[in-house]
Write a structure and sequence with these properties.
Layout (H helix, E strand, L loop, with lengths): L4 H21 L4 H28 L1 E5 L5 E5 L11
Antiparallel strand pairs: 1-2
Helix pairs in contact: 1-2
């Protein structure tokens, strides 16, 4: 059975944190460090992709000019000019 996307994200993030801890300790060889760094980059890209997918699914409810609620796509950093 396939893992849920949120579990995949959490697993990837946890693995990434462990890689960062290993790299910060500084006791890896150069080759091990490069392998860990490469794996870390892959995990960052995976996490970024999962976050983008989640962001695209998020919608906010806003009142339109007629006072009715409607769903609009989430836009990071956008301010809501329709709030009173």
């Amino acid at each position: 059975m396939a893992k849920k996307k949120s579990e995949q994200f959490e697993d990837a993030l946890s693995h990434l944190e462990k890689i960062v801890e290993k790299l910060e300790r500084g006791d890896l060889t150069l080759e091990q460090s490069l392998e860990a760094f490469t794996e870390g980059i892959r995990l960052v890209q995976l996490c970024h992709k999962k976050l983008e997918e989640a962001e695209n699914k998020v919608q906010t409810l806003l009142k339109n000019q007629q006072g009715e609620w409607s769903a609009v796509a989430f836009e990071p950093g956008a301010t809501d000019a329709t709030k009173e």
